[in-house]
Design goal:
The protein is about 40% helix and about 15% strand. The protein is built from 12 helices and 13 strands. Strands 2-9-8-7-6-3-4-5 form an 8-stranded mixed β-sheet, with helices on both faces. A 3-stranded antiparallel β-sheet has the order 10-13-12. The chain has a two-stranded parallel ribbon with strand order 1-11. Helix 1 crosses helix 9, helix 2 packs across helix 9 and helix 5 runs parallel beside helix 6.
Length: about 375
């Protein structure tokens, strides 16, 4: 399978790339977006084609708040939302406004590998903190706070990338209390929160954004289409005000006014809810099939936990095995994955690898697992 050359990721013919963390091409809702665009085009006065208000179109934020209330099970104020060009741009903007070159930041070990690149762009120094099956170990955060004060803590609390771990409710409360006490800014990357399959996650850290220094990030890349480059951040009014006053928004106005208008129509027409239901059903079935194949084909020395949401399965090989070395052999057999070392700020995690079930349908996923297991056995 291959993608068009206009795609960010081009997969050679015959290759199954289980490292790719994006939706299948057929899951991209072209018809729904055409319908939403037609609805949006009726906008009187072509307001959406002008420079937008810095915080983002108020009608869109109102529609978004209603959608999030259904996902989060709690009130969401439109005034606490700011439109972004996706989570990556939001992370970059936060680095610009809330840190400076040479600052320490706290990250989880492992953490999202592309966030690591953004932090490196800003010359930030990551301190890696341990995780377990219940997410970030908050006691370790407090221990590190006694040695250094970071510009912020970057966390992926729900369906973590790459581990798919979900921070427990008790730890969320502990983390919020800690960040209040130490005035520690928490940047919560919550883009996978809507993609729950087997259980309902605890309330997002967004629930605490007005009572603690928390900025929550969300994105339509995971629940609608990544090419929209549309997301949001949720924060207290004083944080929103600081961002609104920045040079980027003062110069260019609000981010993505036209796209947010189209997505507003998709929200109001129920198209986002319909698409999210399709994604959850599709991803859940793929995940269960992939986990069943791994359980039946891999020895006990290879470990993983079945995720309850998100995109990924985090596979642990026996100590001393090097996933990066296995990857070079895997490519010869037309199978790829993401080696764990890419997610490490300590040059570790060499015996881990990340697999995604978001891109391929079940037959290709099962074929990919068969190839992967064979390569691991050979190595």
């Amino acid at each position: 399978m291959s993608t068009a050359s206009s795609s960010q990721k081009v997969i050679p013919a015959g290759m199954i790339d289980l490292g790719i963390g994006q939706p299948s091409p057929w899951l991209l809702p072209a018809a729904a977006m055409q319908k939403a665009a037609g609805h949006c085009a009726k906008d009187p006065g072509c307001v959406l084609l002008a420079y937008g208000v810095e915080q983002g179109d108020g009608h869109f934020r109102l529609a978004l708040s209603g959608f999030l209330e259904g996902i989060y099970g709690m009130p969401v104020e439109p005034a606490h939302l700011l439109v972004t060009n996706g989570a990556s741009q939001a992370i970059d903007l936060i680095c610009t406004l809330f840190s400076k070159a040479g600052d320490t930041i706290f990250v989880e070990e492992p953490t999202y590998f592309l966030a690591r690149k953004i932090f490196a762009d800003h010359q930030l120094e990551p301190v890696a903190l341990p995780m377990d099956e219940d997410g970030l170990i908050v006691d370790a955060v407090e221990g590190e706070l006694k040695r250094s004060r970071p510009a912020f803590l970057y966390s992926i609390p729900t369906y973590h990338n790459p581990t798919s771990a979900c921070l427990s409710g008790a730890r969320r409360k502990q983390l919020v209390e800690l960040c209040r006490r130490y005035e520690l800014l928490v940047v919560a990357d919550e883009v996978y929160h809507p993609l729950s399959y087997t259980s309902v996650p605890p309330p997002p850290l967004a629930a605490f954004c007005t009572s603690a220094p928390v900025i929550s990030l969300g994105s339509f890349s995971k629940i609608l289409a990544p090419g929209l480059r549309l997301g949001w951040l949720q924060a207290a009014p004083e944080v929103i005000e600081r961002i609104v006053r920045c040079g980027l928004l003062d110069s260019g106005g609000g981010l993505n006014p036209f796209t947010s208008g189209v997505v507003r129509s998709a929200l109001e027409l129920g198209l986002v809810d319909k698409n999210l239901a399709l994604l959850k059903d599709t991803y859940s079935r793929r995940m269960q099939a992939m986990c069943a194949a791994l359980r039946s084909q891999t020895p006990e020395s290879i470990r993983f936990s079945e995720p309850s949401g998100g995109f990924f399965i985090w596979l642990s090989l026996p100590e001393g095995r090097d996933a990066l070395a296995i990857l070079s052999k895997a490519k010869e057999r037309n199978i790829e994955f993401m080696p764990g070392s890419k997610f490490s700020s300590r040059h570790g995690l060499k015996n881990f690898l990340r697999l995604s079930f978001a891109y391929y349908d079940t037959p290709d996923l099962l074929k990919g697992i068969e190839r992967l297991v064979a390569v691991i056995g050979e190595c």
